[in-house]
Amino acid sequence: MDSTLACSFFQFFTLVVTFSFTLPTSSATEFSVKEATVQDLQLAFQTKQLTSRQLVEFYLNQINIQNPVLKGVLEVNPDALAEADKADQERREKTPSSLSRLHGIPILVKDNIATKDKLNTTAGSFALLGSVVPRDAGVVTKLREAGAIILGKATLSEWSHFRTFGAPNGWSARGGLGKNPYTLGEPCGSSSGSAISVAANLVTLSLGTETDGSILCPSNMNSVVGIKPTVGLTSRAGVVPVSPRQDTVGPICRTVSDAAYVLETIAAIDTFNNATIEASKYIPKGGYAQFLKKNGLRGKRLGVVRHYYNFGNDTFMHETFKLHLNTLRQRGAVLVDNLKIDNIDEIISGQSEQIALKFEFKLSVNAYLKDLVASPVKSLADVIAFNKKHPKLEKMEYGQDVMVQAEKTNGIGKAEKQALLNMTRWSENGFEKLMKINKLDAVVTPFWSFSHILAIGGYPGVSVPAGYEKGVPFGICFGGLKGSEPKLIEIAYSFEQATLIRKSPPLRRKLEVTSFK
Fold first, then answer.
1. Residue 503, domain member (yes or no)
2. Of residues 157, 191, 194, 214, which has the active-site annotation?
3. What does the alpha-carbon distance between residue 372 and residue 364 come to, in Å, rounded to a whole number?
4. Nearby residues of 93 by Cβ (< 8 Å), 6 or more positions away
5. How do residues 390-445 score in pLDDT, each as one tens digit?
6. Active-site residue (options: 110, 358, 362, 482)
7. Is residue 213 part of a domain?
8. Per the domain annotation, does 445 fall within a domain?
9. What values do phi and psi take at 242, rounded to 5?
């Protein structure tokens, strides 16, 4: 970990930060960075209440204070301030209309997303420390073109939680164990650091990746917004993979609007990822911001699959989601209740996804490692051997059983073909059939419980903050068919604006700087 991130546990809880700037303006107006959205920041830039350098310095200071406990940031970009200075200069020289919404805004990217700069790309593993990527990941290229500032790399569950299921959620050998800023407990994974960091205001925006639940779950548990896009809508070129069939890159932010701005920046054709060519038909002309409508729920048909509302004896949760369903109705949505996915039991009890992911992981990781300019490891077998050689470094008491099982696979045999056929059949005869027969725009479910259905079919989902039970955050999820991001954004934004539930973590009250004078 960079020495600039070092700070004692005592400082985290007791330090009161005084951190201000004299800005080049006679105005006495103060700008609050706390919970600031992209729109807020751009207005502050234009009115000269804030510069990108000041914003980056603010976040670097917050990382220095909070990150030793939260462990949401793995590595800070040493060129972040230089990128901020460049953005400030461009803002002075160019007209505001020529600059993108993300221009001059800091963003963290998960440490399995390649950056061709001074940052490492390691998936949280020492086995990849010092590896040299051939180019920026496709999504990073789009961010740089938009003028966004790459602030650093976010922590994650090591190898996107595909080394072993025995390690805690949010843990990696390089980054340690990430902490939920609301509870200092479970952050969920594997995009844990991305969610932790935006929740705790260590950064404005972040990118995560999802194979099954890795955006939706940490967003749910850290009270932030996560968009898991249709597979292929965003490029996964340059991303340390698990499954090319299920992997997708998406935004994790504090608001639906910020997530929409990031999504419209990174959704694009990438010649290094052929799946983006087919999925590009789903990208709407004019981007995703046009779907940020307060009345976006009006006329939408939302399916309620009661299987996902089984909370045992938790009266609070029952009543909370009952109120949320009423809110959806009051905002003009038509709820189609008591639905059931025909093959739900078969999906939940089946092992097809794990069978497929293991052989896909071996093949895709080997291909990724082969494409590197330089690397300490050249294959999955090398990674396993590295871990065995460095048991203390990689905390091998957690094991690497999933990797070992993946290494034993040998391409696509009879069992693997059947697993793929099963998932296709379940998706077509299950979720797709449910959506089409009932003419649904989306399904609404509590928490991140629907991620498995969305994952195996490559479908999109959006998680929005939905409340706090004894201080523990939870979210609500809207899922739809491939390419339904415009509808999902309308629904999610309308719900968000109707409820405005999100609040900042309590641990930040003595720590944060909220204004520039």
1. no
2. 214
3. 13
4. none
5. 999 999 999 999 999 999 999 999 999 999 999 999 999 999 999 999 999 999 99
6. 110
7. yes
8. yes
9. -115, -55
CA 309 to each of CA 78, 313, 339, 476: distance values in angstroms, whole numbers, following the listed order: 46, 11, 11, 11
Q: Which two tokens stand for residue 448?
A: 């991140």
Is the pLDDT assigned to residue 11 strictly greater than 80?
no
Tokens standing for residue 301: 């048909």
Catalytic residue list contains 214: yes
Give me the CATH number covering residue 419: 3.90.1300.10
Whether the pLDDT of residue 305 is over 50: the answer is yes
Catalytic residue among 190, 206, 364, 484: 190
Tell me if residue 436 is catalytic. no
Length of the chain: 517
The encoded tokens of residue 85 equal 């200075």
Residue written as token pair 């938009």: 146
8 inside domain: no
Pairing status of strand 73-76 against strand 149-154: antiparallel
> With bands split at pLDDT 50, 70 and 90, how would you rate the model's confidence at 32?
confident
Structural domain including 279 reads 38-498
In degrees to the nearest 10, what's the CA dihedral of 174, 126, 156, 362? Answer: -160
157 belongs to the catalytic site: no
Mean pLDDT of 300-322: 91
The 3-state DSSP class for residue 336 equals strand
Q: For residue 9, give both structure tokens.
A: 């546990």
What pLDDT score does 507 carry? 59
Q: How many domains does the chain have?
A: 1
Please tell me the predicted confidence (pLDDT) of residue 512: 47
Least confident of 170-174, 266-270, 305-309, 355-359: 305-309
Q: How far is CA 210 from CA 140, 193, 235, 492, in A?
A: 16, 13, 12, 19
Give the pairing of strands 176-177 and 171-172: antiparallel
Residue 158: both structure tokens together: 């090591």
Q: Identify the CA nearest to 361 among candidates 408, 314, 395.
A: 408
pLDDT in tens, 171-228: 999 999 999 999 999 999 999 999 999 999 999 999 999 999 999 999 999 999 999 9
